[in-house]
């Protein structure tokens, strides 16, 4: 059969159209991974912009880091196939999905990812552009790619161009890089505990904690600091120099406000040669990341595929980074980033967020929401673990899901 006829036949056959888009919310860990119980490392006196207020210094939940909860987006095709995704967004994001975004999908061909993304973004541009609205768009886009993979019987990484390597390697984020080393990870990223409001004493404590961990892991294991937007330029510069010179820090992450491109450019310019400056997990769209890269704010961009616009937007962000020789290492987002990272040379490793309370064990990052969620073994994941349609996971429908805004 000639190629032209084959193309016509596939086009005529098409794929099952999109029938319905639904948005649910659920609480307790999962995609809103800061929504954890008492005593978890991820909520133990971690430096944040709110730490200037003593009453909000001990716990990020005290100022509402987990106020949103998880958004679940489900897209059902006419043949009954369902694609889904989870991200951070909860009820307000569910409203945006059902009351605004669904109209651009229902009745459409699921292959129209570009046109659907364009309509979702520009129809919400007057009140969106970043943050919650782009989280909602990301959730819909991820669910659409999951549906496409399930309709075609292909893993998302194969639809993105296929694997450029046989396995993923991971660094681990959490309070125990010493345990991460024993578990086979290539590095450990510590949360920073003290910000400018705790003065020179806090800075000394930050360095003491890092030096203690350096003594435990030895000289060659990567150690990084995640500052979660908590610092000012002067503090970040002083911390960068001391942490690099005294403790061999590999990178300083998200030290400043995501909007302060000018301070990031100054931090990168004044950072010690050899120390990497990284950021981006709270940035969104190709335009936001172009600003970070064109203003030379960082050495590595770290978009979260569930927050930056989804796979369709991450393709544009990653390709621009590649053209500029900037590494793109997505913020921890489980299978949603693994399927992307394995297809990109400028994404040589991935993040694994340790969600065990210690953390002393590897547990699925989005537990308990994804059935079949793969986890690194000895700090690695073979590509075969991704060889299932879509993102290769199913939704745990035993969870108490709520659909607040049915349309
Ligand atoms: C550990 C950090 O404080 C955040 O909780 C973390 O989610 C994020 O910044 C990361 O890079 O994993
Ligand atoms: Mg981070």
UniProtKB/TrEMBL annotation:
Subunit structure: Homooctamer; tetramer of dimers.
Role this protein plays: Catalyzes the dehydration of L-rhamnonate to 2-keto-3-deoxy-L-rhamnonate (KDR).
UniProt-listed Pfam families: MR_MLE_C, MR_MLE_N
The keyword Magnesium belongs to this UniProt entry's keyword annotation: yes
Keywords: Lyase, Magnesium, Metal-binding
Species classification: Bacteria, Pseudomonadati, Pseudomonadota, Alphaproteobacteria, Sphingomonadales
Cofactors: Mg(2+)
Cofactor, free-text remark: Binds 1 Mg(2+) ion per subunit.
Substrates-to-products reaction catalysed: L-rhamnonate = 2-dehydro-3-deoxy-L-rhamnonate + H2O
Keyword set includes Metal-binding: yes
Binding site for Mg(2+): 226, 253, 281
Gene: rhmD
Family matches, as NCBIfam families: PRK15440.1
Site residues by UniProt (Transition state stabilizer): 351
EC numbers, comma separated: 4.2.1.90
One example GO MF annotation: magnesium ion binding
UniProt domain Mandelate racemase/muconate lactonizing enzyme C-terminal: residue ranges: 177-274
Note from the entry: Reaction proceeds via a syn dehydration.
Active site (catalytic residues): 331 (proton acceptor)
Protein name from the UniProt record: L-rhamnonate dehydratase
Gene Ontology terms describing biological process: carbohydrate catabolic process
SMART domains: MR_MLE (SM00922)
Residues under site feature: Increases basicity of active site His: 304
Entries under Gene3D superfamilies matching the protein: Enolase-like C-terminal domain (3.20.20.120), Enolase-like, N-terminal domain (3.30.390.10)
EC primary class: lyase
């Amino acid at each position: 059969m000639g190629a032209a006829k084959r193309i016509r036949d596939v086009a005529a056959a098409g794929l099952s159209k999109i029938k319905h888009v639904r948005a649910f919310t659920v609480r307790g860990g999962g995609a809103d991974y800061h929504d954890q119980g008492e005593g978890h490392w991820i909520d133990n006196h971690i430096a944040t912009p709110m730490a200037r207020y003593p009453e909000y210094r001990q716990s990020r939940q005290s100022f509402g880091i987990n106020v949103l909860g998880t958004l679940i987006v489900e897209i059902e095709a006419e043949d009954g196939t369902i694609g889904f995704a989870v991200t951070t967004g909860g009820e307000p994001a569910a409203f945006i999905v059902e009351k605004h975004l669904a109209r651009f999908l229902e009745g459409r061909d699921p292959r129209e990812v570009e046109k659907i993304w364009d309509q979702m973004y520009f129809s919400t541009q007057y009140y969106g552009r970043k943050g919650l609205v782009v989280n909602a768009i990301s959730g819909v886009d991820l669910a659409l790619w999951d549906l496409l993979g399930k309709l075609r019987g292909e893993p998302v990484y194969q639809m993105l161009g296929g694997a450029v390597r046989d396995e993923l390697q991971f660094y681990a984020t959490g309070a125990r890089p010493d345990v991460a080393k024993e578990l086979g990870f290539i590095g450990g990223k510590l949360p920073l505990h003290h910000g400018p409001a705790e003065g020179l004493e806090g800075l000394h404590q930050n360095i003491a904690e890092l030096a203690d961990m350096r003594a435990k892991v030895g000289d060659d294991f990567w150690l990084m600091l995640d500052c979660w937007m908590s610092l000012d330029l002067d503090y970040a510069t002083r911390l960068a120099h001391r942490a690099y010179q005294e403790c061999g820090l590999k990178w300083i992450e998200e030290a400043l406000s995501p909007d302060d491109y000018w301070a990031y450019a100054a931090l990168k310019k004044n950072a010690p040669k050899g120390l990497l400056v990284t950021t981006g997990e709270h940035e969104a769209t190709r335009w936001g990341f172009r600003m970070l890269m064109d203003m030379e704010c960082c050495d590595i961009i770290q978009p979260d595929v569930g927050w930056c616009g989804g796979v369709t937007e991450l393709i544009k962000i990653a390709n621009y980074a590649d053209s500029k020789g900037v590494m793109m290492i997505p913020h921890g987002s489980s299978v949603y980033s693994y399927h992307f990272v394995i297809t990109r040379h400028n994404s040589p490793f991935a993040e694994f967020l340790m969600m065990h309370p210690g953390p002393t064990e590897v547990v699925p990052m989005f537990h308990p929401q994804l059935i079949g969620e793969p986890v690194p073994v000895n700090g690695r994941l073979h590509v075969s673990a991704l060889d299932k349609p879509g993102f290769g996971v199913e939704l745990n429908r035993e969870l108490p899901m709520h659909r607040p805004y049915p349309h």
